[in-house]
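Q: Hi! First time asking for a complex rather than a single chain. Here are the components, and I think there are two in total. Is that enough to go on?
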Amino acid sequence: MLKKYIILVFLSVTLSISADERYLSVAYFGELVSHPGIVLSIENPILSRNNSNIFWTIRGGGYNHYMSNSTLFIGSEFGYRKNWNSGFDFHSQIGISYMHKFLDSPIYEVSSESELVRVKDYGTSHLMPNISLGFGYTFNRGKGREVNIFSRTEIFGEYPYNTYILPHVSFCLGFRTKV
Amino acid sequence: MHTKNKQRILFTLVIVLIYSCNIWVNSEDSDFFYVRNDSADMPVWVNGNKESETFVLVIHGGPGGNSLSFHDYYMFNMMEDDFAFVYWDQRAAGSSMGNSTMEHFSIEQYIEDTDKVIDVINLKYNNPKIFLCGSSWGGTLGTAYLLDSERQNKVSGWIEMNGGHDLQTGMELSRQFVIDYAENRNNKDWNEVLDWYEKNRKITLNNIAKHASYVEEAYGYVPKNETMSGDTFRMMFFSPNNILAMLTNTAYSGLNFDIWDVNFIDQMDQITIPSLVIWGEYDGILPVELAQQAYDVLGTPEDDKYINILPNSGHGPVDRDLDLFHESIIEFVNKYR
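A: Yes, that's all I need. Here is the structure of the assembled complex.
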């Protein structure tokens, strides 16, 4: 499962590098709004028709939940964007990432000799499916260098967590520009 | 609006935000760490007067509840000048991490986890006096833990708050609590509830969620016109808590960990350490009759066991009983530390 996923991410990166037209987006990634993080993505158009387009991204980022955990992720998404002539747009993305989670506080164990041992934390591996909805606005539309600002709400999962999937919610606020 | 006014509003908002966050900031009086045991990383927050060398370990309810809410909702924070409080989220509960499976849902596993947390406290803080304070399911777990004399020796005192030392009797009484309430209402909705109880003569893992919802509607958790303290906003957004983990753990543990036939009555005479039994008069999920039952069967000498009924409370202390609640805990712990 993990092998297939690594191959998929590798293919995404390769295709992303070879694409003619690309966009870079940088956004604040707030888990439950207030736990800060950042997400960077490279967006590659697949199909554009009228004011709609389908695209895919590779993305990476992380966030810190104060005293609880620090989490990194890298993955890929497919997305759809509907643009209006006014400059506003609606977009939705769905994807999957690899997540690595480190606890943000010391971990203790009691050894068989009844001694207190501070455990080194190498983190834990998880799959991170995600789906998001958002709105944006493009400045300078059709008049030179376009810059799009957007906000997005993302629901993502953390699997495994106690054998099931733990849902998370994040709020993203950022910008996107052609590179 | 004048610029000065805008600045004042902004300044006030910043101060409020800083205050909101500040309560969770690790200070000299506060430690936050995880205890790892058998596929679980369980958060432990030690807050309060560590120099007192007296630590009260909070064993939360559920299964699948959380401990950090005791800090706010039961205002344990008001006792932190006197002692250190240890807020521990059990496995598959609160904001604990890891990958607990169904096989971990046994009282023996939770006893082992409790023992590990107590060992960590003893090793990290140089063998302080430890008091256990178990609420609801925490009363079940705390009682189970203390049934072993070697484990009992690690603890200076036991506080059972609306606890589940006898869930068999507790569920029968709780079922009757809702039936009595429904019969007094005598309307269509409550008659349907009576029909449901006619078909569900025993509370089990399969129907506990529905029963709990009826207890709540019958004001068996928080009595009508009473209020509980708490700052949900701060807990959700500015704490190590993960509100979504808390909710999913409540469902995962609550719907899979079958505890509803547990009854320790015949073994509780083995508990001989100083004990305090605290109960809400209007508790509908573990009714107040269980308080006297616990007091009577504990093996603790008469002079070292106490019972205190909170006259306005249900399954947890409400605002009007907080002073009485805190006083009885502080007096008890001070006497035996």
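A: The longest helix of chain B spans residues 3-22. Let me know if you'd like any chain examined more closely.
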